[in-house]
Amino acid sequence: MRPLTYYIDRLITFAYVASLIGGVIVCTTVSTNAADSNKKYVNIRSVASASDIDHMSADDFLLDTEKAADREDLKEYLNKLKKNGVNDNADDADPDALDDEALWGDDESSKDDEPDDTDKDPTEVIEIDPDDWHLMLVNKQNPVPEDFEVNLAKINGSMYADERIIEDIYRMMDAAADDGIDLMICSAYRSYDRQRVLFNNKINKLMGQGMTYLESYKVGSMSVTVPGTSEHHLGLALDILTGSYTEMDDGFGETEAGKWLAANSADYGFILRYPQGKEDITGIIYEPWHFRYVGEKYAKDITERGVCLEEYLKGGL
Fold first, then answer.
1. Alpha helices of the chain — where are they, by DSSP H?
2. Which residues of the chain have pLDDT under 70?
3. Cβ atoms 159, 71 nearer than 8 A
4. Is beta strand 184-187 parallel, antiparallel or unpaired with respect to 237-241?
5. In the chain, is it the N or the C terminus that has fewer CB atoms within a 10 Å radius of its CB?
6. Average pLDDT of the residues of the chain
7. 113: containing domain
8. In the chain, how many H helices and how many E strands?
9. Catalytic: which of 215, 231, 279, 287?
């Protein structure tokens, strides 16, 4: 039997669809069970219990809500969202502080680079397999399946990710360091309970600024995803900043770190998940710090086509 909160969320979703445009499918809860000291097994079927992988202090960046909602008249902001679907100029939250445990540390041992496939045929047509785990689509319309399971491995400190992508994370961080770029992972795997805390804080702050619950739900879900619909649940998403720029806003994309990631992340299997100009498709504001692992083959193809994951799975442009 599903928890009462599930039916409440569904009722709210139907009310929203009737009053505005679109909708949010709310689903799933998450649990974590230790496999060993460096790996954790995650099952999406039941409510999560507190664990060390839930305490990633850099996630608190999201608790302050996006700057746009703070500096614009809320009614004007909401009207803009209703008219265009999203706000192209919306920023995300300001971080107040960083926890050293949540950062990419120098104490992490380097990993050997894997050889690049330099003999690739540039005319090769990439076959898109929507059932490939690399391309698993999670958004407001496609929540994490209830039977989803993932094996987590430690990145550093309290940061965990899908064990299958750890080597490529190390490769990318090492390559950036070799180029003089200081990258800092501030969020990776995130449990359902952790996401619920972030989302509820967003809703409460927006309501405190005069929005109704439904308005807050709509606006808030554009920068903090509804629990059960976050890519962070998959262990395949990273939020990456740099030591000299620790604000989650558009400006990160103009930093050397942001430019390096945009230009090079595909070589290590990552894509800029929420590109500028695709907000009406992804339903999420431009986030130059959010990168999703899809594997090198798909990442390069997606980047070259200039499409977002939703477009790619529909056959590109």
1. 4-19, 67-71, 74-84, 166-178, 192-208, 213-220, 256-264, 279-282, 296-305, 309-313
2. 1-124, 316-317
3. no
4. antiparallel
5. N
6. 74
7. 4-60+88-194+222-313
8. 10, 8
9. 287
State the DSSP string of 56-101.
-GGGGGGGG--HHHHHS-HHHHHHHHHHHSS-TT---PPP----GG
Amino acid at position 241, single letter: L
Inter-CA distances, 37 with 150, 158, 237, Å:
16, 11, 22
pLDDT in tens, 187-212: 999 988 888 999 999 999 999 999 99
Structurally, the chain folds into a number of domains equal to 1
- 287 tagged catalytic: yes
pTM above 0.70, yes or no: no
pLDDT, tens digit, 9 for 90 and up, residues 11-58: 555 554 444 434 333 333 333 333 344 555 544 333 233 334 433 333
Cβ atoms of 242 and 257 within 8 Å: the answer is yes
Look-up of token digits 């920023």? 91
CATH of the domain at 257: 3.30.1380.10
Residue 66: inside a domain: no
C-alpha distances in Å from residue 203, one per residue of 74, 97, 131, 264 = 14, 22, 34, 35
